Please model this.
Amino acid sequence: MNKTRIFNEFEKGNICVFNDSLCERDFLIQYAALNNSIEESRAISYKTFKNYFVEDRSNKESATSITRLLFVIDFLSEKNLSYFINNKYPESLDISSQYVSTLLPSLKRVKENEAFSLLPENMISDINKLYDSYCAFLGNRCLYEESYSEYKFKNASEAIRSNNYSIIAYDTMPDLLPFLEDLGNPSNINLIESSQEEPSVQIEKFENCSAEVATQMRRIRYLLEKGINPSDIAITLASFDIQIDDIKREAKKYNIPLTSAPSSKIINYPMGKLFYNLRVIFEQRFSLNFMKSFLLDRSFPFKERSLIRGLIRVGIDANISHGQIEPNKDSDTWELSLIPSKKTREKDIELYSKYTIFYTTFKRLVINLNVAKTKDDIELSILNIINFLFDVKLDEEDSTKECFNRVLEEFKSVFDSMEYCGINSIDNLYGKLISQIENIKYEEKIGNNEGIIVYSYPSSSSLNIPNHFILGVNHTASEVINTPLFILPPSIDEKYREEQDLSSSILNDYLTSEYQPYVSFSGEDYIGSQLPPSFFIEHNLVSEEPLEVEQANNAYRDEELYFALKKDSFKALPLQSLGFYSANNNILTSLLHDMANRKLEGEVKNRILSFLKNDDGEYELSSTSIDSFERCPYQWALKYIMKIREDSFDNIPLDHLEVGNFLHKVMELFFLKVQKEDKRFFSSFLEKYEYNLEKIFYQELNNYRESDKSPSAYSLIYIEDNFKPKVMGILEQEIKMFDSYSYNSFEKDFNLHNKVLYYNDDGSISKEIKYHLRGKVDKIVELPEAGYAIVDYKKGSATINNKSFIKGSEDHDLKSYQFPCYRQLMKGENMEALMAAYYGFNDGKYEVVWENDGSVDLELVDELFQMVLEDMLAKIEEGDFIATPSKDHCGMCNYRQVCRKRYSTK
Model:
């Protein structure tokens, strides 16, 4: 905003109304610096201005997000909502309560909107119920809702009404015009646009987010070297959460002083993270992953670090999934794993006792905190946890103390609101406290008060700053759309929504400042490709080439120019040479017993082979282990000899094995019921099958919920929403594939004890290798003519390569030997698998591997399987587990980091 226009309003004697108190103070200070003084009341914020014209509120308090939530909790304890809350999922009530509380400020405006009568009946009913009850709640507790206020010119005092006002950048204030209409559009209120000038500032496009931050920070370094005062420089981030960490890092590199910057969330800081983790650990029932994440975090001053590390080591060795929170349960896998066994060494028994005391105490304190219902119980629990876990007082460091106290202040505001509303206790109180702080912005003190301030977009739009760097201004980040009636469903016509796009007005406010800012965006950021705001495109102000702006030296660019003058332009730098030297002495060097690069020999080989055999001297094999060995023998060795586990890094914490077992169990119980009641599967019974399958699904889901291996409530909701439609989808596919077919068995185990003979050139037997082949077939269907069809369920998608089985095919590179293995196992019991198919729950359909139509050479199938089996056993006997690198296998291998022969080093 051009300050000359604002100063002219001051000169006229008008009171200037600004969007926020930040701009109000800034222009007062600037005017006073030129004119010695100005009355503080000559500049006010828009919020203050609006409050001049409301009814008397001297005995009332403003409703807050906390009081709104308390109202919803109280409301839902007595009444039900049919539109905004799904009553089928009571475990989601906490999240639903939070959502409903955000609707309350807009209810009055929605009821007054022309579209109100067009809403669904149950939505109208919910809104009326909420609005009437909320108004009564406000009246009974002497509260007021800002958005319910009625503004009248006569409500203001005579002195207020007689002043002249200039509303600065009125086009960036979303609800100004309706507000002025309520006042009767008084003649003493003058509206000033954000700008009357055409913008001329170009937006600079950078290749990526890192290049943008690095270049702009070098420009700031150059300004500081020229002697520019840090107070005359500011940084505004439109993509704040994406770029703030880069800003801090580059500022440290170039020694640029920053004074403060709001964080994305307070829970990203140690003390905020402490309170948040104490909730997550409870919700995840002391899962190993979250216990590791919290208790091994170096940012917390734990006093029992060595004891904690030992406890976590026990959890890893025991492959613990999670603990237990119900007091009447005795199946906590942590506690069971901490009971010394007969093999436990005497010196470790005392350690295990200490681990048990630590875990049970920590568990009790966390549970007490999370089940507490009153303020006193919460405060006592927090004090006990702090004293138990930490060696130092949390107020010894200023930064820690400040963040810790900030969280406690938020908790106190909740407790004060409870007291004000007459509520003494609430179920799940700690969960609601964490919800309150989850999105709280925390202003981190980076340096002293003489540094450069970092603002978030668009709070700094009206500021006049000589050197203003505005970063990350892409189309999405710069979009500011006011949606006062966001509660309206998409089916309501746009003309009723009252939406306002303030994006162009705010950009214009930035660009027509007295000082031209530096504006930039990244073509690629950490989210993906980005475009400039349409505002710049419409004004033809997009610069595809870097602007000619003086900046501090770029070491990378200097290096490029230096080597461009040399013929041998590719030369390893000293640090690179050191890195390759280090690699050549460890990861790229073959070890004496490196299974990835050489065969095992001698005693090492004999010990491993004896480990792989059972008491009868047989190698234990399955279709899964055969597939693993065929992909890469080294991968097989790590999995079946070294017993290295694979971990999951899914966003939704699921045990995929357990989910697979759950789906298999549902299928088994359903088809057993079909077999028992109908003997065959008949499409005419579809309605009955749908009822039975849905019933079994929910019975097993409930069993899964109550089991020791149950995931979180959110994961169970995900499993239900994601897999129920896919489970029900098998009925339609069953009609297509096996209508009127009989079932033989489900989840049937097969075992085959056999041996492979190897011959010398003269025909004599050189050696024999015994093996025990086992497998479990998910479903066996009797074919009408003869033989059987075998079915295997896949939790995800089923990918096949059935061309390898077709008669006359030269492509015999089978992707999986699962069905050939099952075929061999069944032949041992005089059953011939003439058809094989996968059912992939992700795809919701059968993928047939081979049909019962004579098109598949089943003798070739048996022959290929036998060749693979013999080759595998021979290599195991020779100690040959050498890795077989390939682009396909190494790219998705979970063990590639420990492989010294991986594809990426070739």
